[in-house]
Design goal:
The chain is mainly α. It has helices at 2-45, 47-52, 58-81, 94-108, 119-129. Helix 1 packs antiparallel against helix 3 (58-81) and helix 3 runs antiparallel to helix 4 (94-108).
Length: 136
Amino acid sequence: MEPVVQAIAIAAGTFIVREIFVFFVFKRLDEFSTLRGDVAEALVYFADVYSNGPTASADAWKNAGDTLRRLAARVFAFQQKRTFIVGLWNVPTRDDLGKAGSNLIGLSNSRSATAIEFVPKKRRQIEEALYLSPAE
């Protein structure tokens, strides 16, 4: 009877270790990959809005601004809950995540003509912070 109990204990222990690994590593990696893809999509989709400043329509600005701010909130949330996976699988540091979130907010506020000159720099900083390939 003792070998059966040992086998059950080993199986249970293996399951628990696997679930902990999945929760702290794979779920975070999947969440970051999704977030990174959403940011990349928004940067391309709304490029005409935040690059044209005051000439874009009010509705386009509202939509772009809301989307970019929601993404910034998600980046800041990920910054708070990211775990030890940094450095292991190409996940940015807390500082880089903070920089990306701040620049997303900056893009959402870039409607004035004077703010337009900073748009390429903000976009480049977002791409660098989240390890995105620059859009040409």
